[in-house]
Amino acid sequence: MTSGDLVVFLKIYAACYFGTLALYFAQGGIVVWINRRHLDRKIQRDRKDRDRTRIEIWQSVKSLLVTCFCLAAGLFAQWKGWTLFAPLELTWISGIGMLFVSAVLFDAWFYWGHRLMHTRALYKHHLWHHRSVAPTVWSNYSDTLVDAFAMQSFYFFYPLVMPVPSLVLIGLRVWDHINGQIGHSGFEHFADRSTRFPSPMVCVTFHDQHHEHFHYNFANFFSLWDRLCGTLHPRYDEQVKTFEQKEPSVSAEEKAKGGGTE
Ligand SMILES: [Zn+2]
Ligand SMILES: [Zn+2]
How far is the centre of ligand 2, averaged over its atoms, from the C-alpha of 132 (Å)? Predict the structure, then answer.
């Protein structure tokens, strides 16, 4: 690797890191602003944890260095031609097809990797993420560096063995970012028929239950693996239905506190 290569890598890395940070703060601010106006959509309404906003943001700024390193390394490997197959030429068919295939494979990676992180040997690396029992929009990247590498190294290994176009790999990361930050926001705006059985799609309640109950809902984009392996929270579908139907009232105390989350 020449010094010119190193400069290219650092440019890709910087673009990934600062781009993701910008998206993290912009999306986080917008979601908090929306949620303050919809306190009735809060999922864990009775929990009164201390505010972890500063801790979560600081940890995210650190762990994103690992996440973005993995993505940058994958893109750099493609640019150098170090991959098993050359990336497919980007067309509508290859783009949409590979985005779908990549999401399904990432979801499998995430499910089984996440199950591993919950084993006795590895949980010490994942415990930090679970300190957020009622997750907020800032919790998505509140991980240890080992935890971040375990889940996000997909973005390095995957392009080495699959002909995924670079833009699709970036698109998957952006999708995962948007999905992950909304999935940790603690407020349910997306519950409907398409997010419960028999659909494999999920809404915010899915990962919120993982933080509240620990032993359920390990997947990322879809509920498929959890349904197949018996790890779906027994009340997931029911809770989605409840959010779909009711318009819960908000107490004056909750209103005064602005929902208590950020
Ligand atoms: Zn977990
Ligand atoms: Zn989480």
Answer: 8
